[in-house]
Amino acid sequence: MARKKETETISDIKITNDEPKSEKVKPKWEADLHRMICVKNIARGKLVYSSKRQNGYVIEWEKTNDENYMELSELVNLKNSNKRFITEPWIRIKEDDEIEILKYLGIYKYYEKILDVDVDKMISLTPDRFEKKFKTLPESFKQAIAGRAAEMMKSGELDSLKIKNIIEKEMNIDLSFYARSE
């Protein structure tokens, strides 16, 4: 004899789960002063850092976008002894936890406006959007963008006269000269 399958409909019953949802809690960021941090040259041209803490300790970035590593403790020393590296800014931390490192060092305010800036993508914005963003950037970062724009003009990648004119007007420079001096 075959058994008849019984089905019930539960339309009046509400099942609630009163347990709190478990949110992923981000572990608190802790500084490891011996951790090696990737530091990128965002200034135009060669950059040299000579430690005042360790005799003979020198880091050189031969050109824009070169990367080197230094201990977090040495970054603390750089911040305290060579402020222009930070205030201009000439360097950029290239780590996943860049914001936490900047806040730990107490220098986030100098990087706040450039954290989301990709130079090549910025140069490819519409002239109006480019101009709006360009005007808010620190002077040395504008120089880095001008240098990259000059490289792109030289190689034929940048053909926007409007972008070129915005850079030249804002910085009072001639990008053609920048392109020759690269």
Detail the topology: elements first, then pairings:
Elements: E1 36-41, E2 47-50, E3 58-61, E4 67-71, H1 72-81, H2 84-87, E5 91-93, H3 98-105, H4 108-111, H5 119-123, H6 127-134, H7 139-155, H8 161-171, H9 175-181
Antiparallel strand pairs: 1-4, 1-5, 2-3
Helix pairs in contact: 6-8, 7-8, 7-9
Q: Could you explain how this protein is built, in words?
A:
With 182 residues, the chain is α+β, with helices and mostly antiparallel strands. The protein has two domains: 36-111, no CATH class; 119-181. Helices cover 41% and strands 12% of the residues. The chain contains nine helices and five strands. A three-stranded antiparallel sheet has the order 4-1-5. The chain has a two-stranded antiparallel sheet with strand order 2-3. The longest helix is centred in the C-terminal third of the chain and has 17 residues, at 139-155. The protein is globular and about 45 Å long.
